[in-house]
Every structure is written in structure tokens, then in C-alpha cells.
Specification:
Layout lengths: L1 H18 L10 E9 L6 E10 L2 E10 L4 E8 L5 E10 L5 E8 L7 E13 L2 E2 L4 E9 L4 E10 L5 E13 L2 E10 L14 E11 L1
Antiparallel strand pairs: 1-2, 1-13, 2-3, 3-4, 4-5, 5-6, 6-7, 7-8, 7-9, 9-10, 10-11, 11-12, 12-13
């Protein structure tokens, strides 16, 4: 039930952002669709992304749909003043506990061709109440000459037995609205491989094609 509610909420929020009268700068919605083909074909997925604003908040929703009918989705909202401000996340998935989290985000002012941000979310609630989870994450991108670019993101859980969560490093080239890239998928390590490796990601190689609408 919570998973269904989370999906409906995540998909409805962008629509509400369009319907509610807002200043022109708040009505802009950007959408992209990605197809990520991993060397482990069973782990390949498609990922629609929606970037939008609602009530003065910057918001981002994505879902990953896998061939085995599993899915994972997240909605992130934030508002910053001079680069610092609160942030929150709603996480849903077929193979994960549905949860909401709150914390702080830092995004320094940088030249237009580069972006960088960090987040720390120490408060989490799941279907059983308060969860022992403290997420530390980062993201960044760099535009290069000749329509090339590099981007990355990742996060780790510092609560309880600290472990790496998930991340990606993407290097690609844009051809108009189409982007072709090589992605390094940074996945969490099986706990059976030893606690010393919990914070070291497991690497998978992937091809990514994305289209900006």
C-alpha cells in the first residue's frame, strides 16, 4: 500500500506543479528518459527523470524499471539560501523499504559549466517508524568542449553498519537532445564479502542512451 501511495505521489507532484498558477520561472519542467544497458544484462533498466519546481522548491523525481518487473524510485525536494538549505526524500521500491528522510543540502555557487552539491540526511522514517539510517551523498557535473560532459553522483549510509549505497560516473557526448555515454555503476557490496569492503563500491560497466524532451 505504501509503495503504491509513494508512486502515485511521486507521479502526481509534477502534474500539480503544472496545474497550480506559479511565476514563469517556477513552471518549467524538464524531462529526460535513459536506457542503461549493464554488462550484467539482468541489471539493465530504463529511467525517466523529471526536474521541476513546486512552491518555491527544487524537485526531482526518477524511477528505474528493470526487466524482472522490479522498480526503484525517488523524489527529492530542496530549497537553498546562499547555497545551503533543507532537503527531503521519498524512496519507494519493490525490493527496498519505503521511507522518507530529511536533512540538509549544500550547493555552492559555481560557474555555469560546473555543478557540485552535497547532502546529509540523518532523519529517516519507514513503515516501522524511525530508521537507523544517516545518508551522506554527493553529485556533480562538468560541461566540456565539443558537447562532451562528465557527471557523477553517489551516496552511503553512515548509520549502524556503514555501507556504500549506490552511485554512477557518466562520461558522454550530446548530439542535440540525444546523449550517448559510458556509465560506471557503483553498487553496494554483498555483506558476505567482509565489513572492511562495505564502503567500497562494486563496479559494473554500462552503456547509456538518454533523450531530453
Amino acid at each position: 500500500m505504501l509503495a503504491a501511495l509513494g508512486i502515485v505521489t511521486a507521479l502526481a507532484v509534477p502534474a500539480l506543479a503544472q496545474e497550480k498558477p506559479q511565476p514563469a520561472e517556477d513552471r518549467k519542467i524538464e524531462m529526460t528518459a535513459e536506457a542503461v544497458v549493464s554488462e550484467n544484462r539482468r541489471e539493465s533498466f530504463v529511467r525517466p527523470n523529471i526536474f521541476y519546481k513546486i512552491g518555491g522548491l527544487d524537485a526531482y523525481t526518477f524511477f528505474e524499471f528493470y526487466g524482472n518487473e522490479e522498480y526503484f524510485g525517488k523524489t527529492m525536494v530542496s530549497r537553498t539560501w546562499k547555497g545551503v538549505g533543507p532537503t527531503g526524500e521519498l524512496v519507494v521500491g519493490s525490493d527496498t523499504r519505503n521511507r522518507i528522510g530529511a536533512g540538509i543540502k549544500y550547493s555552492p555557487e559555481l560557474p555555469e559549466y560546473v555543478s557540485l552539491s552535497a547532502k546529509f540526511l540523518p532523519v529517516w522514517l519507514d513503515t516501522d517508524g524511525r530508521e537507523n539510517r544517516m545518508m551522506l551523498g554527493y553529485s556533480g557535473s562538468l560541461k566540456l568542449p565539443w558537447n562532451f560532459d562528465v557527471s557523477t553522483f553517489g551516496e552511503m549510509n553512515l548509520g549502524g553498519d556503514a555501507e556504500w549505497g549506490y552511485g554512477e560516473i557518466s562520461a558522454g557526448r550530446n548530439f542535440g537532445n540525444l546523449r550517448i555515454a559510458y556509465n560506471t555503476l557503483l553498487k553496494n557490496v554483498d555483506v558476505n564479502q567482509g565489513e572492511r569492503k562495505r564502503l567500497m563500491p562494486r563496479v559494473e560497466h554500462a552503456f547509456c542512451a538518454s533523450y531530453k524532451f
